[in-house]
Amino acid sequence: MKLYDLIHKHAWDDVQTALVRLYPDYESELAGYRQVYDKLKTLAPVPSDLRLLIQLVYSEHAQEFDVELKCLYPPHATRNASSLFALELTPWANWLGMAIEAQTLADFSEFDILAHCLYQMTFFGFTQEDIKTATTEMPGSSLGDILL
Known about the structure:
Blueprint: H1 3-9, H2 12-22, H3 30-40, E1 51-59, E2 64-72, H4 92-96, E3 99-100, H5 102-107, H6 110-121, H7 128-136, H8 143-146
Parallel strand pairs: 1-3
Antiparallel strand pairs: 1-2
Helix pairs in contact: 2-3, 2-6
């Protein structure tokens, strides 16, 4: 299942409930998340062989589990896991074309998957222009070096 399909499958209200439960400190930002969710429903997905993976990873430093969201390259790809970076700076249409890893679908509810993706997608802002601005402000990096 692609992220595009998952977004079109669920109404905002259910995703909002998951966002508030998973990210309670960001409840005041719900209008921004809603705006992005509505925008995602209007975008055409960019076809991709990449797959989204969400995992719970134990942090020794924090002594707790953190959610880690990353993309996986297909087995035939020339890039490897060590070259993954800045998923949060990836254009939203590219996210929509990514398949959701089967293990993620087994481990998380669809609402939680959407909430985690929205949180990561909006890390630098609630518009793609905000994200482009964040990219250009990063020292020593170019957009081509950051985006997938």
